[in-house]
Design brief:
This protein is of the alpha/beta class. It has a single domain, classed as Metal-dependent hydrolases (TIM Barrel, Alpha-Beta Barrel). About 35% of the residues lie in helices and about 10% in strands. It has eleven helices and nine strands. Helix 1 crosses helix 3 and helix 3 runs parallel beside helix 4. The radius of gyration is 18 Å and the shape is globular.
């Protein structure tokens, strides 16, 4: 049986915006190329608008938003826009639905942008992409909004609070995947103290109790996302699974179920273009068992002895689809 897949995170847009002659159909270039998505029965794919913290971040984010808006028109045989992503009929579709998200709010506001400029950028991107599946305040490093997952002692800044206030009631989840622990704590406290209507997710994160890495979620934060009826996408990157043991991926997934996340655990593979990555110690980025989006059927098959068919469907598609159906309908 082939299970449909809803994946919460890939970096197809930054690849298309920065790599000369980028080809979203070339399986040798990027592990979320369209042929791989088709082989993996991916029905809905969230594509991140990713930017560094630099003066050009807002320009780069606008370019990626424009690319996203054009993809369903240029490749209508294979892709369709966000309006179809939450339809119950999507599992019977041959085309892949795409949604956009913001990975690093530097794309909404660089370090010198005024708040009128940030609000204008927010509206511009939302107009181009239609729906934002989530916003991450940071990536690995610090920015004007808060501290990323590799920072120490940096939590939620005043600009981060202001952006959260602007997100209130807009049905755009906040993503904890790249926060420092202090930032995650600050986000949750600010939402609660001001009674903000903002869902909380982790789009592409594993579990620190399985693999002790700053990039992974503590059980405390994972359980809090689950309590708030959010979703958590398991990440396929070797560095965040276990540097040596491929099967640790299954332990992360099963741990999500064990801590109460049967209705929260999803996929957030984090496939991106790796050929220009300077740190050679990170290569290979993925274990062979999860090296591209075509591997979903075999991964789900290997989980059959541990999860019921109902649980496998929840993991592969239904948890993410139900979350966004409730959020956006």
């Amino acid at each position: 049986m082939s299970f449909p897949v809803f994946d919460l995170h890939c970096d197809l847009l930054s690849y298309l915006s920065t790599i000369p002659e980028a080809n979203l159909f070339d399986k040798k270039e990027i592990p979320c190329a369209i042929p791989y998505l088709q082989e993996g029965h991916v029905k809905t794919q969230i594509c991140a608008i990713y930017t560094n913290v630099d003066p050009n971040s807002m320009t780069q984010a606008a370019i990626q938003a424009q690319i996203f808006s054009e993809l369903p028109k240029k490749h209508s045989e294979f892709l369709q826009g966000p309006e179809s992503a939450i339809s119950p009929d999507q599992i019977n579709e041959n085309r892949i639905s795409i949604l956009a998200a913001i990975e690093n709010a530097a794309g909404l506001g660089n370090e010198t942008a005024t708040w009128p400029e940030i609000y204008q950028q927010f509206d511009l991107i939302l107009e181009k992409v239609g729906t934002l599946a989530y916003i991450s305040l940071t990536h690995h490093t610090e920015n004007r909004f808060g501290g990323g997952n590799y920072t120490e002692g940096i939590g939620l800044k005043e600009d981060g609070k202001k952006l959260l206030n602007h997100m209130d009631g807009k049905r755009i989840p906040i993503d904890l995947s790249h926060t420092s622990d202090l930032l995650a704590e600050g986000i949750l406290n600010h939402i609660d103290q001001h009674n903000l209507d903002i869902p909380v997710i982790a789009s592409h994160s594993n579990y620190r109790s399985i693999w002790n890495h700053k990039r992974n979620l503590s059980d405390e934060f994972a359980k809090e996302i689950i309590r708030r009826e959010g979703i958590i996408g398991v990440n396929f990157l070797r560095a965040f699974l276990d540097n040596e043991v491929p099967e640790r991926l299954f332990e992360h997934i099963l741990h999500g179920f064990e801590i109460g996340g049967e209705n929260s655990q999803c996929f957030g593979a984090d496939f991106f273009y790796t050929k220009d990555f300077p740190d050679k110690s990170r290569h290979p980025f993925y274990f062979p068992l999860a090296e591209n989006a075509g591997k979903y059927p075999s991964l789900l098959d290997q989980l059959k002895g541990h999860l019921t068919e109902t649980q496998l469907r929840k993991l592969s598609f239904e948890n993410a689809a139900s979350f966004y159906q409730k959020l956006l309908n």
